[in-house]
Design goal:
The structure is a homodimer of 296-residue chains. Chain A is an all-alpha fold and 296 residues long. The first copy, chain A, is built from 14 helices and two strands, in the order ααααββαααααααααα. The longest helix of chain A has 28 residues, at 202-229.
Chain lengths: 296, 296
C-alpha cells in the first residue's frame, strides 16, 4: 500500500474534522479560540488519530464516529504539548518550527487554551450528534479509555515522573516506566478507542493492545534517537535538548545504534501481534514501520 | 429542614467518596497524588456536588451514581482554583486559609495536578462500575454537560473573559456575561447532571436549568459582596482583592446594598421556578437561600 498517500489522506480527514469542531477564531472568547487553533494547526503529524483510525480499519468497517474519536486524541496531545512547553515545565520557545503557544499568547492564555483543549476532547467524545452510529455503552468505554490514557496513571503521571527524573541517576527500568506512562498510555488508548469503535471482540482487543504497547515503546525510542541525530530543521525544535537537560534516554543506555536496533525489534514484535488479522490491518503494520523510520 | 445538618451530611458523603476515588498519596506518582489531594481536601464547601445531589433528590430517588457525578464537579472546581491561583494567572498565595498548590508543590506540579484532576473528573463519570445504575445514554449526556459547563464556552471561557476584562472599563452586560460563563455554566451543569441522573423529564429539566441560572448569578453577586465586606479570616484569603486588581464587580455598579438586594431577588426568582416541585425540592430551595447568606 502507498503509505505516504494513506497518511496524507487521513491527516487531511482529521484536520478537516478538527477545523469543523474547534470554534472559529471570530467566535467569543476570540483569543482563546485563536490560541487553541494556533497549536492544533501547527503542523502535527496526527500519529495518534491515524492509529485510532487504522485500528478501527483492522477490525472492520470504521464507523463515521471514528473521526471524532481520532480528533479527541489530537486535542489531548496538543494540550499536553502546550502545557509541557510552559516556562514552569520545559520552557521551550519553539515547537514544530513555530513559536510555542505561551510565546505568542502569554502564559495565562496558554494554560487556559490547554485546559480548554483537554475539556473539548471529552466534549467531542460525549456528543451524541457526532457519535450516533455508536452504542452509548461503547461511547462510555471510549471516553474511559481516553481519560485513563491521558490522566494521573497515564500521560500526566508520566510527565510527573519525567520531571522528577531530570538530573537524577535513573536506571533503565525507571526510564521504561516513565515512557510507558508518558507516551505509551495515550498510544495504547488511541488503538483501543479505534478498536472499540469498530466493535472489536475481546481477543482482537487484546492483540491490538499488545501491538500498541510495543509501538508506543518503539515510538519513544525513535524520539530519543532523533533528539540526538536530528537537525533543528528536521525536528522543528532544538536538537540535543535531552543531553543539555541531563536527561537519561535510550541512547544513553544502548548507544544510538543499540537504541535503533531495539526500536526495530519492538516494531517486529508489534507486527507479529497482528498475525491473526487479515489485509485490513496492513495500514497498522505500515504505521508501525513508519514510526521508527520517520525523520521528525 | 435542618439545613446545616443536611449540608454537613452531604459534604461528608462527598468527601468520603472523593477519598475513595483519588489514589492514596503512597501510590506512584506519589507527589502528584499528594498535590491532587492537598487541594481537594483543603476545606471546600462542596457547593456544586451538593447542588447536583439536591437536584437529583428534587426529581426523585437519586441513584447511587449521583455521588460519582457530584464528586466529578468538585474535581473540576478544584482544578480551576489551582490553575487560577498560578503566578501567570491571579498569583495568589493563599486559598481557604492554606498556601496555594504551587506555593507548596511548585508551579510545574500545580499545573499537572490541575490537569490530572480535570481528567479524573471525566474518568469518574465514565467508569461503568461506579455508574452501573445509570443507562449508558444518560451517562454520556452527563459527561457532555460536564464538558460543556467547564470548557471553552463555559468555565474556561469565562476565565479568559475575566482576565481580558481586568483594568478595562467594562459595562454591566459584559460583567454579566463573564460570570454567566465563569461561575454560572458549571453550576448549571451541576444541577442538570443531578437531574439527568434522576431521570428528569424535559419540563423538569427546563425548570431546574432556570433555577440553576438564577442561583449561579446570585452566587457570583454574593461572592463579589463578600470580597468587599468579608475579613481575611472569614474568606481564608485576602479580602478587597477585586478592588486592588481594578476589577469591576456587582458592588461597583450597584453598591453593596444594591448588590445584596439583587442577589436576594435572584434567589426569590430561583425558588419560584421550583413551584411545580413538591417537598423533595426543599433542600434545593434552602440551598438557594444559603448561597446569599453564607459568610465565606
Amino acid at each position: 500500500m502507498d503509505m505516504s498517500r494513506y497518511l496524507e489522506q487521513k491527516r487531511l480527514d482529521v484536520d478537516r474534522f478538527l477545523d469543523q469542531v474547534i470554534p472559529a477564531e471570530k467566535r467569543e472568547p476570540t483569543t482563546l479560540h485563536e490560541a487553541m487553533r494556533y497549536s492544533v494547526f501547527a503542523g502535527g503529524k496526527r500519529v495518534r488519530p491515524i492509529l485510532a483510525i487504522a485500528a478501527a480499519e483492522a477490525v472492520g468497517t470504521p464507523p463515521r464516529s471514528v473521526l471524532a474519536i481520532a480528533s479527541s486524541l489530537e486535542l489531548i496531545h496538543t494540550y499536553s504539548l502546550i502545557h509541557d512547553d510552559l516556562p514552569a515545565m520545559d520552557n521551550d520557545d519553539y515547537r514544530r518550527g513555530k513559536l510555542t503557544n505561551h510565546k505568542v499568547y502569554g502564559e495565562a492564555m496558554a494554560i487556559l487554551a490547554g485546559d480548554a483543549l483537554l475539556t473539548l476532547a471529552f466534549e467531542l467524545c460525549s456528543r451524541t450528534d457526532l457519535m450516533d452510529d455508536l452504542e452509548p455503552q461503547r461511547q462510555v468505554q471510549i471516553i474511559y479509555e481516553l481519560a485513563v490514557g491521558s490522566g494521573h496513571l497515564g500521560m500526566v503521571g508520566g510527565q510527573v515522573l519525567d520531571i522528577q527524573a531530570e538530573h537524577q541517576d535513573i536506571d533503565l527500568t525507571a526510564l521504561q516506566r516513565i515512557h510507558a506512562y508518558k507516551t505509551g498510555m495515550l498510544i495504547r488508548a488511541a488503538v483501543r478507542m479505534g478498536a472499540v469503535a469498530a466493535s472489536a471482540g475481546a481477543e482482537q482487543l487484546q492483540h491490538l493492545t499488545g501491538f500498541a504497547e510495543d509501538i508506543g515503546l518503539a515510538f519513544q525510542i525513535a524520539d530519543d534517537v532523533l533528539n540526538v541525530t536530528g537537525t533543528r530543521e528536521q525536528l522543528g525544535k532544538n536538537a540535543m535538548t535531552d543531553a543539555q537537560r541531563g536527561k537519561k534516554t535510550y541512547p544513553t543506555f544502548y548507544g544510538v545504534d543499540g537504541a535503533r536496533a531495539l526500536a526495530d525489534q519492538c516494531v517486529r514484535r508489534a507486527i507479529e501481534r497482528l498475525s491473526s488479522f487479515d489485509g485490513k490491518a496492513d495500514a497498522l503494520r505500515e504505521l508501525a514501520r513508519y514510526i521508527t523510520e520517520r525523520q521528525n
